[in-house]
Fold each of these.
Amino acid sequence: MNSVQIAFHPSSVSAFDVERIRADFPILQLQIDGKPLVYLDNAASSQMPQQVMDRLVRYQTSEHANINRAVHYLSETATAEYDAARRKLQRFINAPEEREVIFTSGTTDAINLVMHGYGRWFIKPGDEIILTTLEHHSNIVPWQMLAEETGANIRVVPINDAGELLIDEYEKLFNARTRFVGVIHVSNALGSINPVKQMIAFAHAHGVPVLVDGAQAAPHLQVDVQELDCDFYAFSGHKLCGPTGIGVLYGKAALLEKMQPFKGGGDMILSVTFEKTTYNTIPHKFEAGTPPIAAAIGLGAAVDYLSAIGMDAIATHELELLNYATAQMTRMPGVRIIGTAKNKASVISFTVDGVHPHDVGTLLNQEGVAVRTGHHCAQPVMKRFKVPATSRASFAFYNSMAEVDALIAGIRSVQKVFA
Amino acid sequence: MSNYKALYQEVILDHNKKPRNYGTLAQASHHAVGHNPLCGDRISVALCFDRECIDCIAFQGESCAICKASASMMTAAIKGKSRADAEILIHEFLAMATGKLNLDDPNHIGRLAVFAGVCDLPTRVKCAILPWHTLHAAFNSVAIASTEADPMHAPNGDA
């Protein structure tokens, strides 16, 4: 009796069994030019476990039809599974209501939805939108397009040399014209985890709504939109072990209801005549046309998979990988880590003295190590650190300490080639 | 896959470390700047003619080793050549970098063959061809060249 209780107690789950988890990911068995793949480009896109692939196959094999339309068996099954996926995503981010979870094609689509559906209706000439230096281009460009169209102005929160937002400066940006805040939860380029809860509370004290770009946070942290009290939260499926072409916009129901649709078409209407169209209720108002049904169901399976492991356990293992890699790279002469925030997710941007990041990337690939090289769709960050590009290693829960060692050995071999 | 292992050969690493004809020209008759917006590589090529032949040429810029070595070896290869001969070499180099040149056929590639392996690395092809694209633009006095216009599909004079 005693032993059974201990076996099921969460705290008794001791060591994170990375080898057992790796067995779920067929792609991790690949060899690249005779070397085992060391996949460290998870911030760009994560890999998919067999469980999610099996779910996609089951859907296409025995459940597929269009949703919300016909009365036949397959349409009803597909509709039920699509709705079930929405509820899984709702639980994953602890959204109060199912209808506050909108399926989009990804984070970029979700942010554009808010720009069109909210921004174009509620942001006026001379109004101000606050963004941060750490934003991904996807949370900069839509707002620039809006500013150009409406005559609104964009204000930017600066960062310090560690890559942390200057919260005092953020607070000073607020004035009577501030209408909107867009902030990235975890920087894709540097890994900095931003104090979004504190920033949201400050914005709300000024009556300003906040959109959080959670593309890099959702795969690594337990996201609770009620605890954050964010007005919008956007993230992508393919960084969460799910398929590409699917993402989520969470929005508070009261805001979503007063917003205008972004795209017009089927499914987002209640009735259409040539005189007048009545829009459907949320979330359908924002899901025009046939959605990526299979991808949504696959994403539902992906968050089931992640939840079974536990986001806290994932965050703990990734922090160990980050700390282990950071400690070694900090000791390497000629290697500079860009982004040393106290609170970081498992992303390491770095440069190697005298070697362009593209050469670093090609030579690491030669060792089977996949990293991202370039500006990471965050050119303002690169400009702030006066580098044209960096190499970036980003770790997922299925990466091992041995893979960190392979990265370090790879960087040493790059230095040897260019010695 | 084995070709790219040979890409970072001694000759490429040497040209990267000690680029030839690196700098600017006081009296250039032709000049262009090449830019690869995807990685931030940016190089400028300047040259002047003595009658029919390229008399002096220089390049400058910030780039990866492949791009810099390609630029350095390009300047060495075309110095003294006529514009027509240089255009032939540009064409052959671009064909080689994109895997469309059979090195067994008669050609003028010579030592530039060290870049043949780049065709196995699609993301690095642009690094190798940027200097050549920029040279082509300089001949036509096009101010800015970009790797985002495919040189293999751009007719002469329309870079």
Note: The CA atoms of residues 243 and 295 of chain A lie 6 Å apart.
Amino acid sequence: MNTSTVDIKRNCINRLSEHFDTFREEEIGGIAFAIMPLKQDVPLIKQASYNRETDIFEIVFEYTEEVIYKDSDFVTFIEERDGSLVGIRIKGIHSLKIKEVTLRVVATLDKVIQEAQLGIKGDLESIARLSIEKRKVDFLKDVINEEIPKVVSSKKESKKESTRKEREENLRAYDKCKTELYKKYAGKYVVIAKGKVQAIRKSFEDAKDITLDTNHRFIFRVEPKEKIRGTLRWPIKKK
Amino acid sequence: MRKSFKTSRLRIVELIIVGLLTYILACTTGSKLFFLQKIINPEICNLVLDWLWLIFIILIMAYLIIYYLKGKRDKVHIARKIYNNICEEIFNRFIKEEEVDNHLFKVTIFKAFKESSRGPFLSAVGRFQIKESKKKCKVKFLSGEGCVGLSYRIGQSVEKTIDEYDGKNPEKYFDDSERIFKLKKNKAKKLNDYACSFLCIPIKYFGQDRPWGVVSIDCMKKFDFSSAKDRKIEDVLSCFSTFFVEE
């Protein structure tokens, strides 16, 4: 896994147990029974991560059969041939508002369960299967509500960190070349970005649009230094 | 106890057959019936000697049948002992320390057999209880019938509590069993104890995804079985999973 990917598998495993290790009331033949899947039937998480570069949030359970990818708006549902939900992929989280993303995904997941409930046969096996699907959906909703804000805030933190690094590089570049700048380019506008001098212009207007893609840059005017003439004495006498 | 008595009876018969076979072999070499020649009519003796080979074959056949039956009974006996021990282990680990009286609980292992025309049925193969002497469960649950059958059918743990059995109004319990668990009244009446709280956990074949049977823990008083307890029982079952195999 590369550095731009945030692994949230461990958090998801803890959440999974909250959803699958409890009895839940299910109506079977008009009577409520508390049921719970066996430990060995609890789905295992294959992947749960957020990729900063591609801006894709993905949770996938372990699967054995071939899977189908169903695109719906900015969400892709990963399903097995029998319609059982295997995972979810959300694109462009950062470009959308977090609340909007979670609301829309949760609404879509609710719709998935409603559709499954409508299409369900009355037999006991189907009811049991639907109960597991419901648990999966509730787990995904929980993860989306809780984990997406976390990974997005981690992205902000990482931006802060990279800005700090770039600033340090730019400062080092300035220290290196300042003597030369004061000697040769007095009165000019200098742009320092990406750890080196990018451009030297006559006016601020010419310099302001250079290297806009960086998180940090210096634009400054090289002020000509005036020579101070006089005599040094000790102690200094007040006038 | 009953089983071991049956097995010992078979052993006696087996010994008699072995003795008879040895006697016949001795008679064949000597061409006369030793010891009996003087007691039995000579005509009958001759007849027996003429048909000795047939008697020999019949005895051999009888010996093989008894050998097979004994082996099968021993196998069942050993399996029953193992299942009873598993039930005892579950009882000792998870029921013994409950605040509710121990004698109200019962742990039973049901195995699915596929000989019925109406699909598989579940029959008790192991049991543990501390209340009086153990009774064999005569009721065989069909898939989807009773809490046991339901758990087997859906492949998930089922927890359900119904109203306690009231001696003054026993019909209510049987009505509830029929309405809730789809267990017919005549079957419900055959139950040894009238439990009201049930926890049924399906068991799968070792290394497979097929259901093998169900372990049922029931209580004659209302009791809440927690999901944590269910998971712990599953852990115990997984330790014994190598015993849940095809016979």
Note: Residues 163-221 of chain A form one domain.
